[in-house]
Design a protein that fits this description.
The protein has 352 residues and is α/β, with parallel strands linked by helices. It contains 13 helices and twelve strands. The longest helix has 23 residues.
Length: 352
């Protein structure tokens, strides 16, 4: 059994990692989350009563609190997912992105370095700091080609720039101080428990309620979609078996234009939740002014993680999207509480 610290563990990807750890491993898990708008302890309710699970409400920029947490928990692995992650929010207010994604990562690296240096030889040898990043650090692709681990960084949004900055910090702490790190850059995630501001859950929920389905520009921007459960399995594989200082791209080769994705969701809702007052859900689509600096295409080459660690995504996009639409249909209480803010009132001040 290892002690695994998951930062941002009440978020979309972090909660998937935490649920996977409790359900599929013997490890002890400490979730750390500031519980901003996107952190939701209800996403951890399936595992919250397990004796190997614990939670602490801490801002990762709070160095004394983080240092105390490392001292008390003494992790063997840190999976660093805490981040501000929505591009639109970064355009409107980049301050929080710099604070959390850059300064917060620096605080964690400094604390992890001091912790690692103080470990006994055997634990020191097996310690890992896994930094979870995004393919958006690479910028935008043309109509062909893929991002790989050697692609130059060209971030185009404040969010992408903040994540690129944190990636560089992690590499520097490895090369300068020897901290045993790994970095992953994944494509767009989707699946259950995703905050409703993101494209897929926003489209599903708006369509269920008969509201407009906004699509930026002409909808021809392309993204590579990865199911969050496949991503979580890849992250744990890298955390435990990845090479020191190595970077792994994680993607599923599921490229779709935004408009094709929205139409696919509409078709699934026509089948799974027909609404006579709406008719075809596709009629709800509306095109809105494109956001500034909207990258045209992302696509990830995931050959390295497949070759070196044997990881492959298990869900086809068609199956994963159908399951996701059905999950939001079956879990209206969850997303109603998210949108109303009731989930935040319940968890205010919680610390275990």
């Amino acid at each position: 059994m290892k002690k695994i610290l998951v930062t941002g563990g009440a978020g979309f990807i972090g909660s998937a990692v935490s649920r996977l750890l409790i359900n599929s491993s013997p490890h002890q898990v400490l979730v750390v989350d500031k519980l901003t708008y996107a952190g939701n302890l209800e996403s951890l309710s399936p595992v919250s009563k397990d004796s190997r699970y614990a939670f602490s409400q801490i801002d990762i920029v709070d160095q004394p609190a983080i240092k105390n947490l490392f001292s008390q928990f003494s992790p063997d692995i840190v999976v660093h997912l805490a981040a501000e992650s929505h591009v639109d929010r970064s355009i409107d207010g980049p301050d929080d992105f710099i604070r959390t994604n850059v300064v917060g990562t620096f605080v964690l690296l400094q604390t992890a370095l001091e912790h690692w240096r103080g470990l006994a030889a055997e634990r020191k040898k097996s310690f890992r700091f896994l930094h979870v990043s995004t393919d958006e650090v690479f910028g935008s692709l043309g109509s062909d080609g893929f991002f790989d681990e050697e692609t130059s960084y060209r971030p185009n949004s404040p969010y992408a720039a903040s994540k690129a900055s944190s990636d560089h910090l992690v590499r520097a702490w490895h090369h300068t101080y020897g901290l045993p790190v790994g970095i992953t850059n994944s494509s767009n995630n989707y699946g259950p428990y995703q905050f409703p501001e993101k494209l897929i859950p926003l489209t599903i929920i708006n369509a269920i309620e008969g509201k407009s389905l906004p699509v930026y520009g002409t909808g021809e921007n392309i993204r590579d979609w990865l199911h969050v459960d496949d991503h979580a399995k890849a992250l744990l594989l890298v955390a435990e078996n990845g090479g020191l200082g190595e970077t792994y791209n994680i993607g599923a080769h599921n490229e779709r234009t935004n408009i094709a994705l929205v139409k696919a969701i509409c078709a699934l809702l026509d089948e799974l939740a027909p609404n006579a007052s709406i008719g075809r859900h596709e009629s709800l689509i509306s095109f809105v002014t494109d956001r500034p600096g909207h990258d045209a295409r992302y696509a990830v080459n995931a050959e390295k993680i497949e070759r070196d660690l044997g990881w492959r995504p298990r869900r086809s996009f068609e199956v994963g999207l159908r399951e996701t639409v059905q999950w939001y249909l079956d879990n209206r209480a969850w997303w109603d509480r998210v949108r109303s803010g009731a989930y935040r009132e319940k968890q205010s001040g919680i610390a275990v």
